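Researcher: Here's my situation. A collaborator sent me these components and asked whether they could plausibly form a single complex. I don't have experimental data yet, so a predicted model of the whole assembly would be a useful starting point for our discussion.
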Amino acid sequence: MPTMQKQAFEAISDAASKALAGKPPFERAPYSPEAGEEAPHEAYSYWRSTMRIFLRNKTAVAFLAIMAALLVFTFVQPLIPGQKSPTEIFNDERGIQIRNAPPSREFWLGTNSIGQDLWSRIWAGTRTSLLIAFAVAIIDSALGIAMGVVWGYIRAVEGMFTELYNIFDNIPQTLMLILISYVLRPSVSTIILALSITSWLTTARFIRNQIVIIRDRDYNLASRCLGSPPLKIIARNIMPFLISVITMRAAIAIPNAISNEVFVSYIGLGLPLAIPSLGNLITSGIDKMLEPSLRYQLIFPAAVLCLITVSFYIVGNALADASDPKNHTI
Amino acid sequence: MQRLIRSAVTLVVVIAVVFGLLRQMPIEGYFNNYDKMTPTQIRVGLERHGLNRPYLRALMSFLGNLLKGDLGVSNRYRVGYPINSLIAQKMPISMSIGILALITALALGLPLGVLMARSAISAKRFKAADKAGSAFIAIVESIPFAVYCLFIQIYGTELIRKYIYLPMLFSKENIATWFLPVFSLSLANMAMYAMWMRRYMIDEYSREYTRLARAKGVSEAAISTKHVFRNAIVPLSQYLPTSLVVTLMGSLYVESRYSIPGMGGLLVDSIKRQDNTLVLALVVVYTALSIAGVFIGDIAMAVLDPRIRLTRSQEAR
Amino acid sequence: MDSDSIVEIDGLHVSFRLRGERVHALRGVTLDVKRGESLAIVGESGSGKSVLCKCLMGLLDSNGEITEGTITFDGIELTKIKDEKQWLNIRGSGIAFVMQDPISSLNPLMRVGDQVKEAVLLHQGLSGSEARQAAVNALSDVGIDSAEKRYMQYPHEFSGGMRQRAVIAIALACKPKLIICDEPTTALDVTIQAQILGLIKEMQKKMHLTTIYVTHDLGVVAMIADRVAVMYAGDIIEVGTVREVFKRPAHPYTWALLSSLPQLAPKSGELYSIGGSPPNMANEISGDAFAPRNPYALNIDFVQRPGYYSLSPTHKARTWLLDSRAPRVDPPEGIQKIRRGDGL
């Protein structure tokens, strides 16, 4: 540790004299003003940091793998040879429906109360539910972003939008969902409509708040002063921030849509039984819950559903954390 | 006052929308035995309900009756029975269950959030509490309410039956049957409160004034209670209306699952029976309740935070 | 070690974990603070001045760690303290802190008076109404009018200057031996700056306090400090009385810092600015950290770190230029002007 030197003389260490490589130590070194300018910090990349933080979250990576496997399998399953039809009713050799058969080699997850194969119904139901969920997520993001951008960026409509939002935000989403499903006839598109009508408001508000925060930052003021048209400012400066927001919102919208579908089915406003969905599979499973030997009809679809919603939730949250620049310092 | 007017306007707009939507319904929903009725009977019936009047006039008369406190009569659920008395019968039980669930959520959720926050900012070896709490929140938040509620009903009842006798369905007199519905209704809010409490506490811990409090020698325990906890409660109060709505909507499912004779179960039943006037009345009541919740939340926030006065211009939350 | 030193810092190394890297914020800081003096620590942002202060309070961020060296305060070795409880005896009653930003350093939900009272209760052994009266007095001592009424108000009802006065009242209410002021005036208007500095100076005299100012404003240093320590890249490169450092600066970085003062600008009107940027503290720095930006650097500056060379019993600097083997170097024009006695 170098402490105070009383004499105006300090020995030159061996390492230092080696590093000098014969140059006279007390000679003026060549100076160039640029020399001190070498990039002082490793270039910071937003996306690389996001990736790094995300990959550090081992739980999230594991659930991402589960999620990917589930998605792929759900859509590949009907193409696998030897899979049964989800709507076919199976009869035994005497022509009687094979009702409530426990899981066996023939029916991997057993059959339901009218002799349909639960295994293939679950995957068909997952397909329907995911289809609904993705459609809702797309409509939710598209509508939410468009309205959110207009709301946040065009000051002329801001007041009106805020008033409208404050009014409609007061209607509980679930109530709206019930009403719309009640008025319209149950079908896949009705459910998509009912779910997306209620959910995009949240996204729009979210986007709008982000935009207001970003919009008022100095650098955007600067580019406004320089005369960039508003849309260009949105695209250049704001969209990159929003991509992370969108990923996160979509990751929340999907499990949300799935669970809402379950709820709507439960109160009797869901899809007809001919179209298997996780919602009506669980609802028909509920009828069997009092009989422990038949509970598998509830547990299997519920398990698949939970796997999907949990993995979307965890991956979505991890992405949100990782895409927040505040966390990039860790 | 301004806020009160705003709430009233909101309610009227909502009623107008709901009213308009329900007019799109098939008219069967207004009659008990539609199939056997003659066209004349149907016309008379429609007139009685004001259904052949133009939208605005019908709406006006509904609002007028509403002001007089009259919600109309049920058509299918209990024919000719006034909805007012129906709701008056069912409201108390729903209220008690909802309030109990909210209290449970606060009583368990806040301490959990505090515990998690303190664990999160502590040394590495104490992080277990935070991890466990986060896992609990993730489970409650990600598994659909309808699903975990169901499993609590099945397995919770079986578990308790090992010790005392417990019917699966609710009965007002048997206190033991209150436990599971209240508990499942409180879980979602419990998780929400714990999550936000944790987040706001952690925010508060990194504030300059918390540092200053530390710098003036205030102990960690005193900082947690006097500065951090109190300040974290303020932004948390904005979730009060949300949690109220969550409870209201959760009660639809819970009451119907446990056959609780409350409003939630009533709404589900009226939908299944397609009783239009009852659906309309209940939707109006539920909306009014959630608007009242938002209003209370705003007041709570203004009471807790000296910086906010109720006159401030309303921003989108 | 001197018995009239209240703080002795010896070879202090602090590093942070940041984005998976180790950043060396302090690299062997050695510094004494004398009882009753007013010491200024100057340096650009990132030079480690705030980190140094946080070490004194035991309030280092959780990703930071003292890896080497010792700090002694009033005979207590702070670097050995493991227990939070021991820190509570130091904080406030030993060392008090005035922070940079008066806007955010008061709790917005607590009456200002109660925040002062909190300090009184902890450190003056008073209770109840006595403590309240002491808090009111503390507020009026720092020049807050109608303190009784102000006591009941919330921070948002105070102006920026008023808030900083309240923060100072809190610090003084702890009856500390040492006050650290971390850029106490940067967030304030120029006119209020002078008032606040005057207030701190007055209080220091009245209560026989030791003060440490952290600042990047050389004007503030000239106004209030007895001694000044110049920091660069986590190290103190020159220390001496204000007179010595301003009149006879020895380190090329101090030269550059002084040359950037507007008062020293040549007649042409162009302000001096230091070329390049501070080094990346995540990298191992061999030699003098300032060498790459130093037009007067010697070959040895790039390979071995210089020790301290004494210019007087109170003035020392860490530069090879003071070595007897070094060539004679003429400092820049502005510095020569100071040495001749004009300028400043």
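Model: Some features of this prediction you could bring to your collaborator: Chain B touches chain A through 46 residues (CB under 8 Å). The longest helix of chain B spans residues 83-121.
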